Amino acid sequence: MQSTVALPAGGFVERFVNRFGILALHALIWTLPIGLFAIVASRILFPGLSPSIYCLFEQPSVGQRLYFQTAVLTIGLLYVLAGGAAGMIRVPRNPVLAAAAAYGMFVTLSGLAALSTVLVLKESVFVWCCVLLAALLAHLKLTRAQCRRLLVSYIGIAGISAFYAILQYLGLEIRVGEIGYSQDIAEGRFRVLGLQGHPNYLTAFIGPALLLCPGLIVRSSSRRQRVTLGVLALILVLGIFVAGSRSAYLATLLVGGGMALALWRQRPAFRLTRRSAAGVALAACVIGLFVIPNPVLPHRYSFSQRLSDARPIQGRLYFYLVATRMIVDHPVIGIGYGQYGVRFWEYADALQSDPKNKVFNFILEDVGGIRADQTHNEYLQMAAETGLLGLAAFFFLLIVFYGRLRNDFRHPELADERLILAGIGAGVAYLLVDSLFSFPLRLAGSSLVFWLLLGIGSRYACEENVPAGPRHDMGLARETQAGKTARTDTQTKRKR
To answer: Is residue 64 classed as helix, strand or coil in its secondary structure?
Structure first.
């Protein structure tokens, strides 16, 4: 059973279509967080505006989401028109992609219980664009080398995002106070917003890239690329640190520590040379300058105040309570995807009508000035908006993905790729941990990373990408020769 329906290898049209899809994915990765489209469009449409990295949209994450949807739909349409229609009609027999499509169907189905079905359909376009991205990755005839290049592209642009965050931390931001966080900056809670417009959005985008670096460094045959990836890994570590995101710290410690433990048990062949050891020592010194207070590089804001700030935690606990009430009222298909913010105040008023809940009034006064669009817990919001069926479909997608990845990891002919496979799994796990306290799957940048890793993870160990030898179907471990011999002997005895 083959894992994908790939384009034929021969023919100019087939090669051109495949090459177009790969280049389009690279272009999407590089243009999404930088926002070059916003800068160019603002200079053309509004020549009187002064320069700023946030020059077109008040919230960069909103502009990036619109751009993501437009770009993926355009890439998909052009890919089909260029000659990929025949293959896209024959849906790839890929269990990860099938599970993703099932999740998308439950998202759309949630519109039946929504106050506005049209609004749910509009919001679900984002989810289907994510599924389309995964379908494109599954359908393209990607080799393992091309998969690694896509991952390197992502690490490169994540490094640029982290480097800009470091510049912000050092005071080189342009008009940072006009994004709506001037009070937080003045009170010392945070200063770094990144290209995504918020420290949590920034770390959700760059965090998985850090976990991909070890495998790509070991797998690279070029010293220049290894050094470049090592420098990018250092920049990513500093970017995560200066952002001051508590969920990012937790995800990095849990997932990074778990990945290190799993790899230690496997003991991959890795020899630390003197140059590598010197590089690690130098990187530790640079990180120490940022972490340990010193006169050379003093802290630009209070890390202790940022980490101990209880106000966001109190507000999120109330968000969780509202989401729980929504789940109780609509347990099957939810209130409709993207409708949490629409119906938040309706449920909040119902909760506050009970005298026992007057203790939460101070939270509502704090929340009153902002839009409570997100629960800050992806799983609770998913259950509230798409019902328990939608949440179950999402968990089924994760089970299928990690089951596939686990089988590929154990495959003897993929021993050299285990660090990369572990990095892909750890990158997805990073976003899953971050989803406990944030909403990375609602943002364009981190959603791009999530579905990119899912698509590459389901494609990386396909049959045609495994070295010559016994077949490797769907990433399942092959039977040993001893097992085959034993079964043959048993069948022979039965015949006798």
So the answer is: helix
Q: Supply the pLDDT for residue 218.
A: 85
Cβ-based neighbour number of residue 298 at 10 Å: 7
Exposed / middle / buried, residue 283 (Cβ in 10 Å: 0-12, 13-18, 19+): middle
Residues 6+ apart with CB under 8 A from 14: 7, 8, 83
Residue with tokens 């342009």: 174
* Number of continuous H segments (helices) and E segments (strands) in the chain: 20, 0
The candidate with the shortest Cα–Cα distance to 297, out of 166, 478, 182, is 166
Residue 212 or residue 407, greater confidence: 212
Residue-range domain boundaries for the chain: 12-310+373-465
| Among 181, 174, 182, CA closest to 200 | 181
Instruction: Name the token pair of 94.
Output: 């890929």
DSSP labels, 334-365: -S-TT-HHHHHHHHHHHHHTSGGGGGGHHHHH
Residues near 416 by beta carbon (within 8 Å), at least 6 away in sequence: 219
For residue range 5-30, what is the model confidence (pLDDT) as tens digits? 444 445 666 777 788 888 989 989 98
Alpha carbons 309 and 408: distance in angstroms, whole number:
43
**Is the pLDDT assigned to residue 463 strictly greater than 60?**
no
C-alpha 53/C-alpha 106 separation (Å) is 37
Query: Does pLDDT of 155 surpass 70?
Result: yes
* Cβ-Cβ contacts under 8 Å for 337 (sequence gap 6 or more): 107, 108, 110, 111, 114, 120, 123, 124, 127, 385, 386, 390
Share of the chain above pLDDT 70, in %: 71
Q: State how far the Cα of 342 lies from the Cα of 346, in Å rounded to an integer.
A: 8
Distance, CA of 420 to CA of 391 (rounded, Å): 28
Better-scored residue on pLDDT, 248 or 33: 248
Contacts 24+ apart (CB under 8 A), 162-165: 162/194, 162/202, 162/206, 162/235, 162/236, 162/238, 162/239, 162/240, 163/235, 163/239, 164/53, 164/194, 164/195, 165/192, 165/193, 165/194, 165/199, 165/202, 165/239, 165/242, 165/243
| Rounded Cα distance, 141 and 127, in Å | 24
Q: How far apart are CA 203 and CA 246, in angstroms?
A: 10
Provide the token pair at 116: 């506005």
